[in-house]
Amino acid sequence: MNKTQNIAIIDIGKTNIKIVLVNLNSFTELIVLSEPNVVVNKGLYPHYDTDKLWKFIKSSLGTLYRRYSFEAITVTTHGAAVALIDKNGRLILPIIDYEFDGPDTLCKDYEKIRPNFKETGTPKAPLGVVIGAQIFWQKKFFPQSFKSLKSIITYPQYWVGLLTGKWCTEVSYLGCHSDLWLPFKNRFSSLVTDLGINKRIASIRKANDIIGSILPTINEELGIKKSIPVYCGIHDSNASLFRHLIEQDKPFSLVTTGTWVIIMSVGGEKKTFNPNKDILINVDAFGNPVPSARFMGGREFEIVTKNISIKPTAVDITSVFNKSIFLFPALVPQYGPFKGRESHWSISENKINEGEKVVAVSYYLAMVTLVSLEALGAKGSIIIEGPFTRNKFYLDLMATVLEADLYLSEGSLTGTSIGSTLLINNNTSNLSKIKKYNNPEGEYKQNLINYSKKWKQLVNK
Predict the structure, then answer these.
(1) pLDDT at position 372, please?
(2) What residues form DSSP beta bridges with 151?
(3) Is residue 37 a part of any domain in this protein?
(4) In 71-180, where do the E strands start and end?
(5) Kind of pairing, strands 204-205 and 169-170?
(6) Cis peptide leading into 36, omega within 30 of 0?
(7) In the listed set 185, 211, 232, which residue is the last one of a domain according to the structure?
């Protein structure tokens, strides 16, 4: 698409939805429109407010077109969501919030038909994080609704379908902790047949395929005067990974940070993975398996710091070392390499001031990231994206302990925006380069080394 100047990206995260306009000449965001992604906690079960999201998407696209114009649209979203639609493209049931615990009530029954981890790369997980468990629960409790099921659509592609009237799925989403996909064989698992949905999953398209153009009725509603192609779209972590797959030499690992911290190892050590460490096998935009790990790092940081507004001082940093202030896992015990554990501080919490808490939780998040990288057998350089690129304490400990170079992917574009853009036009010449992080030195470096060693000694006691 050499003539494409601006593209609109629909980016739906667990916390917020953003509509981003990216200029391809400068690789910058011209405008970002955002609002919270609110879960509706009434009705049949907790679910995403798709009506509200759809209104926001349409109004935002209309605003962007009037102010700047654009030549293409693509979509990226968080994982663990599918749309169940009837023959008219209407939802037969609301789209489940993956933090709803309903699927847990059928855990024992679901385990009887669930494929094993070695096949799917999907570890057992609570709540609605596994798509197969969601569908199993919905089918059990709403059998009448399932009688009108025509197609199962992966979440990014649901919005593509609303825009174009054409329905599909995409492999990076099907392969994201769903139990529905065999990443090493590149085909559906036995669960698809066992659930009776083998003829209900929409056709698989590539993330960079053009699925269709905006429907004439929507064009008229939004005041759009030309035909605009809509691309298939992709799972958000895999959008972030895509840039590095086409730029970096293997091996390397990408750490995307946000509500979730997702660690993706490309070309790492070949080993047997432990699902109890919350290791999973993602699937990249090319259909290749990618060993990954996860924990809710952003959520954990928020738990500790939500009422803290001060910035830590040098005195706070020194105090964390001198007082041996450690935070141990897990603040969100459902996920991560220490799932099932109860978080605690090394000393009484009322003896820790606010600045010390910010430093200690940042070091904690770095240590959990390092443990995850080790569990993956990660090799080569490490690239950090997202909000944690602005957390000096997290980065300092990472850079000190890693036996590899640490790089930051910064600039005006998020990883998801970059990857989504490159799926439409993979010319990276105008893209800002990743920057090597300068390692700490002197006494501070030695303090970090000692701190990390002591944390590892104490965490398993």
Answers:
(1) 97
(2) 85
(3) yes
(4) 72-77, 82-85, 151-154, 169-170
(5) parallel
(6) no
(7) 232
Asked if residues 350 and 356 have their Cβ atoms less than 8 Å apart, the reply is: no
Cβ burial 346-357 (10 Å sphere, 16+ → b, else e): beeeeebbebbb
Residues in CB range of 426: below 8 A, 6 or more apart: 246
Mark 404-413 as b/e (b = at least 16 C-beta within 10 Å). bebbbbebeb
Radius of gyration of the chain (CA): 22
- The owner of tokens 């605690």 is 344
User: Which is higher by pLDDT, 32 or 410?
Assistant: 32
DSSP secondary structure string for all residues of 357-378: HHHHHHHHHHHHHHHHHHHHT-
Q: Which among 100, 134, 96 is positioned nearest to 114, based on CA atoms?
A: 134
Sign of the Cα pseudo-torsion (231, 235, 240, 241, in order): negative
Residue among 100, 2, 106 at smallest CA distance from 43: 100
Residue type, position 55, single letter: K
Query: What is the reported pLDDT for 413?
Result: 67
CATH number (domain holding residue 179): 3.30.420.40
* Cα–Cα distance, 192 to 201 (Å, whole number): 9
Look-up: residue for tokens 């910035």? 311
Give domain status of residue 198, yes or no: yes
Report yes or no: 377 and 288 within 8 Å, Cβ to Cβ. no
Domain span at 206: 6-232
- Give the CA count within 13 Å in the CB-facing half-sphere of 102: 20
Q: Is residue 25 part of a domain?
A: yes
Domain count, the chain: 2
pLDDT at 265: 98
Please tell me whether residues 304 and 444 are part of one structural domain.
Answer: yes
How far apart CA 20 and CA 72 sit, in angstroms, is: 12
User: pLDDT band for position 4 (50/70/90)?
Assistant: low
In this structure, the answer to whether residues 291 and 402 fall within a common structural domain is: yes
Nearest-CA neighbor of 81 among 135, 11, 19?
A: 135
CA distance 15 to 297: 14
- Shared-domain flag, residues 316 and 221: no
pLDDT, position 24: 83
pLDDT at 411: 66
Of the candidates 339, 325, 225, the one whose C-alpha atom is nearest the C-alpha of residue 293 is 339
Count how many residues are written for the chain. Answer: 461
Q: Do 130 and 242 have their domain in common?
A: no
C-alpha closest to that of 304 among 391, 407, 402, 396: 391
User: What is the value of pTM for the model shown?
Assistant: 0.92
- Identify the pLDDT of residue 20: 96
Beta strands at 261-266 and 289-295: parallel, antiparallel or unpaired:
antiparallel
Same domain, 106 and 128: yes
Q: Strands 406-409 and 435-436, how do they pair?
A: antiparallel
Q: Could you say which DSSP state residue 350 is in? A: G
